Amino acid sequence: MELIRGRIAGRSLTSGDRLPSIRSLAGSLQLSASTIVEAYERLVAEGVIVSRPGSGFYVAGPLAPLSMAEIGPRLDRAVDPFWVSRQSLAAEGAVLKPGCGWLPADWMPQSGLRRALRHLARADDADLADYGTPLGLPPLRQLLARRMAERGIDAAPERILLTESGTQAIDLLCRLLIEPGDTVLVDDPCYFNFHALLRAHRARIVGVPYTPHGPDVERFGAALAEHRPRLYITNSALQNPTGAVLSPVVAHRILKLADQAALTIIEDDIFADFEHTPAPRLAAFDGLERVVHIGSFSKTLSASARCGFIAARGEWIEALVDLKIATSFGGGRLGAELVYGVLRDGGYRKHMDGLRQRLARARTEVGARLKQLGIVPWVEPQAGMFLWCRLPDDLDAADIAREALGQNIVLAPGNVFSLSQSARGFMRFNAAQSLDDRLFDVLWAVMHR
Amino acid sequence: MELIRGRIAGRSLTSGDRLPSIRSLAGSLQLSASTIVEAYERLVAEGVIVSRPGSGFYVAGPLAPLSMAEIGPRLDRAVDPFWVSRQSLAAEGAVLKPGCGWLPADWMPQSGLRRALRHLARADDADLADYGTPLGLPPLRQLLARRMAERGIDAAPERILLTESGTQAIDLLCRLLIEPGDTVLVDDPCYFNFHALLRAHRARIVGVPYTPHGPDVERFGAALAEHRPRLYITNSALQNPTGAVLSPVVAHRILKLADQAALTIIEDDIFADFEHTPAPRLAAFDGLERVVHIGSFSKTLSASARCGFIAARGEWIEALVDLKIATSFGGGRLGAELVYGVLRDGGYRKHMDGLRQRLARARTEVGARLKQLGIVPWVEPQAGMFLWCRLPDDLDAADIAREALGQNIVLAPGNVFSLSQSARGFMRFNAAQSLDDRLFDVLWAVMHR
């Protein structure tokens, strides 16, 4: 196969040319005819050649352009909410990504994933080919119900809906709960893709400053009174990007204010497994009346096998199922099967114990090296990937990030996270993606230009 | 594990109870202590029991309700665009689904899927854990470009975007191209989930009657003039539900009308691999100027491993990538890897050859048995799953369907497909799901009640 592909790429065979007959190629390569037949069959399946019965095999045309690479990091892209995601998702091997929000692939539970895939290869026909049921794989919802119960959240499996991802979970909720022009509260700073998603919904976005213990309660109350938002979207466990943790007293006050203002809160729990000690969950205090609890396993298990979930009031679950079917028909059953397979495998718990320790060491090491450059964290993170740091000397993080991109490093400048654009001097570093010496060399050079 | 689960289900162990110690259970079951340890570890991972270090293992609480079954077919559900999908997706083993729109799991390329899963278990770490690139797996897009080229559609890989499914593809396009209140044309009758999706987008939906050769050209022109729609959504290859095939002359006329009216057409190609001989593709005539070509592998490869695609103008692809990231972040990489693995395997082509023959036999057999009941097809389908049939004696298909549901058979009554509700006497039968004698016994009984 490689021989034929090579001849096509080198244009010694071009579209319309007839390939050597099976017998003659078998003879010249000293291989069996059946080997050549198999190779030709596979090339037909790939569309590289076509079979004309009675006549032979021919090179298909027109040919693909010689370069097929994904569009890599672009120097001219505006520093907007897509800046980090587009650059990071397209980045190839040599590009460093200290600004991205996920772990390197080899930090994820690879042996558990591979074991689950092998197990799936022996599963029932239905598991491999059928659409998912409306709510999604029952044993996974049962497992999620128990995990939530451990964090004090009372959600029966029938009140849990599986989704394709955490982002799709929030997107479905926005489709259900808000209209264009409705106001939505977010933290400032917050995860940049919340901005992108809410813009896609034409929401009016209002930011509430985040403190080391949760949103600023006074500013939260003022925002409720002035803007009458429909929704508030926030993280639980660990705030993205600051790494700060909600305190119980702030949680309680926020919920009281939400109650008075008939505000719905979406609590995004995707960082749950990074915690050493569990932070308060708004859904635990509130009992899923006013709070919707969502999550996924993209950060700790796999971003390749997609699976997220929503835990909410029963009436909303029913409406969300209809919306999910209307906009994506069945859910991704295989992703749910894979996630369930890894979660129920005893090895995942051990893996996460090891991962939390590995991350703690990385945060320590990266934190120390950043401090040497005068880059200091806003709060000392107790868990997770992120170091939210202030740059020294009034440096502009967006300028630094543009310079670094020219040297194949994707950084996350503070203002992509801040609605009020008040994080000009901040940068979010992913400790697990910041362990390469080159990062610190480039940072030093760029900061002293 | 089953022993412990059984005791909990039977309530001989309840929440808070301490489990037997590892050593004592090993002794009483005559198993090694390490087997018991492994079992307890897995039960902890599932959340069924909790470990209290130094104290032992305890049953977790509160317990799940004893019945966890998905909500099965509901007799009181309104016969609306979700009637068939909700009932079919939730149906369990004993329920027959002649009304559903997919093949039985054992008709799908199971050995290819299993082979691809085993192969994936040995893939790179990145394939198993990382987010997909913005456009999606490059070799799959290249393969799709070649497949489209075989049907005369000129789409470079960079103009192809992978999505989670065909439905998500259309949903993304609607998010990009239409506003609430915009008018969208559909065929009458058409796939019921187009109705559900367009309602979710608050579109005004206008139906154009379908003829055995494509949409009624005069009525199409009249609808353009009267309603000035933004979009027209239709199938290529085989129309759902009628099984009719677009003729070249109708295709050409529709495109001329579309051009004069600045109409965008979305052509849904999900039934492509069912064709024996290729029907015209609007995207082939038009060159992706006005036509967007979408598809997926849910019908012929797997509905469990989700993967769809959009081929469109370059500017739209760029905007669609941003929309995809905003609303679902990365795409499902594993689904794409699996689909690619099966497609490039020489066995898929052979499988599809066999499947088409198997379906042809099923259509013949089912068609004959339906004719015995006086149920006759509107057109004789040349390919695919569907038999779109008229009931005799002015029977109402919705009444028949409700009666059949009481006997655990999910049918597809005509009016769920028809915007104008002009298909009261029609039923769509999926030949592959209609091979059970019980269906015909129940149909006879219900029709003669």
TrEMBL record, chains A, B:
Record-linked PROSITE patterns: HTH_GNTR
Domain HTH gntR-type: 1-62
InterPro entries: Aminotransferase_I/II_large, HTH_trans_reg/aminotransferase, PyrdxlP-dep_Trfase, PyrdxlP-dep_Trfase_major, Tscrpt_reg_HTH_GntR, WH-like_DNA-bd_sf, WH_DNA-bd_sf
Keywords: DNA-binding, Pyridoxal phosphate, Transcription, Transcription regulation
Any single Pfam family the record assigns to this protein: GntR
Gene3D superfamilies according to UniProt: Type I PLP-dependent aspartate aminotransferase-like (Major domain) (3.40.640.10), Winged helix-like DNA-binding domain superfamily/Winged helix DNA-binding domain (1.10.10.10)
Molecular function as annotated in GO: DNA binding; DNA-binding transcription factor activity; pyridoxal phosphate binding
PANTHER family: HTH-TYPE TRANSCRIPTIONAL REGULATORY PROTEIN GABR, TRANSCRIPTIONAL REGULATORY PROTEIN
Protein family membership: In the C-terminal section; belongs to the class-I pyridoxal-phosphate-dependent aminotransferase family.
This protein's name: GntR family transcriptional regulator
